[in-house]
């Protein structure tokens, strides 16, 4: 049984009204153990916020890592998404993708940094996402490199459109990417078709390495499900917050 201390945490539910998206977007904000407004904190920004909190158990995992493993306290911001528009927002060819990127950079970041003692250096903002959430996190960094340079990708959906953008880059040495892929993800069915995520991630890795990305690439047995990603989340957080 897990230590009861891991469940004594503060999670604030909020929402942000977005001009770019023409709607209010729910947020989940984790405040770390010992949270003090007089201090400052790095922030982990998660796509699929509800899933990162409910299935990824990021609040419990980060609390344990802070209390028992000496990890630096951090704020987590989970940005919820409507499953009916998720692909449109997260996929680089989606019709709402550009608007979502603008929302994140122009509206969400100022919203959080006005209300919480969040550090504003780009090395103190970590983008995290699974599948297409990993894709949109990478594209946020590529399009707003003054704001973001650190990305956690859990089985990212990196296909031709993403690689086309990467191929145009001359130097990605400023980008730090934690990239995890499960070896059982060779036939993943999505609403856009069935893909070999292992092949797609390996092809993307090769391109990232050519562009001198600071890449931490991991392959291990695992399926395209939260049961796999949840178990790997602590290592990903340690990579950037240790």
Overall mean pLDDT stands at 96
CATH class: Alpha Beta
Largest sheet: 8 strands, mixed
Q: What's the structural domain tally? A: 1
Sequence of strands across the biggest β-sheet? 1-2-4-3-5-6-7-10
Please give the radius of gyration in angstroms: 17 Å
CATH-level-4 superfamily name: Alpha/Beta hydrolase fold, catalytic domain
Structure commentary:
The chain has 242 residues and is α/β, with parallel strands linked by helices. It has one domain (4-241): Rossmann fold. The protein is 38% helix and 24% strand. It has eight helices and ten strands. The protein has helices at 49-54, 58-69, 86-90, 97-115, 132-143, 160-167, 197-210, 226-241, and strands at residues 10-18, 23-31, 43-46, 75-79, 125-130, 150-154, 176-182, 188-190, 193-195, 214-220. An eight-stranded mixed sheet has the order 1-2-4-3-5-6-7-10, with helices on both faces. α2 crosses α8, α4 (97-115) packs across α5 and α6 (160-167) packs parallel to α7. The longest helix has 19 residues, at 97-115. The two termini are 25 Å apart. The model has no long low-confidence stretch (mean pLDDT 96). InterPro entries: AB_hydrolase_fold, Esterase-like, Mycobacterial_A85_antigen. Pfam families: Esterase. This is Esterase family protein.
Task: Give a brief description.
This protein is of the alpha/beta class.
Keyword list:
242 residues; eight-stranded mixed sheet; globular
Question: Helix and strand layout, with pairings?
Answer:
Layout: E1 10-18, E2 23-31, E3 43-46, H1 49-54, H2 58-69, E4 75-79, H3 86-90, H4 97-115, E5 125-130, H5 132-143, E6 150-154, H6 160-167, E7 176-182, E8 188-190, E9 193-195, H7 197-210, E10 214-220, H8 226-241
Parallel strand pairs: 3-4, 3-5, 5-6, 6-7, 7-10
Antiparallel strand pairs: 1-2, 2-4, 8-9
Helix pairs in contact: 2-8, 4-5, 6-7
Pfam family, one: Esterase
InterPro entries: AB_hydrolase_fold, Esterase-like, Mycobacterial_A85_antigen
Protein name: Esterase family protein
């Amino acid at each position: 049984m897990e230590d009861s201390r891991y469940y004594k945490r503060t999670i604030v539910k909020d929402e942000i009204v977005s001009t770019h998206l023409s709607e209010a977007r729910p947020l989940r904000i984790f405040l770390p153990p010992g949270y003090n407004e007089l201090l400052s904190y790095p922030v982990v920004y998660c796509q699929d916020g509800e899933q990162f909190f409910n299935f990824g158990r990021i609040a419990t995992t980060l609390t344990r890592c802070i209390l028992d493993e000496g990890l630096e306290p951090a704020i987590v911001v989970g940005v919820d998404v409507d499953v009916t528009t998720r692909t449109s927002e997260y996929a680089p060819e989606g019709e709402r993708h550009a608007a979502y990127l603008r929302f994140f950079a122009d509206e969400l970041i100022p919203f959080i940094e006005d209300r919480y003692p969040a550090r504003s250096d780009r090395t103190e903002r970590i983008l995290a996402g699974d599948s297409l959430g990993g894709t949109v996190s990478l594209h946020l960094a590529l399009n707003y490199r003054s704001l973001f340079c650190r990305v956690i990708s859990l089985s990212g959906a990196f296909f031709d459109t993403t690689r086309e953008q990467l191929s145009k880059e001359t130097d990605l040495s400023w980008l730090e990417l934690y990239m995890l892929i499960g070896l059982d993800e060779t036939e993943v069915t999505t609403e856009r078709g069935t893909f070999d995520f292992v092949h797609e991630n390996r092809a993307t890795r090769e391109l990232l390495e050519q562009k001198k990305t600071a890449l931490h690439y991991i392959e291990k047995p695992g399926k395209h499900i939260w049961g796999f990603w949840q178990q790997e989340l602590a290592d990903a957080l340690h990579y950037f917050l240790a």
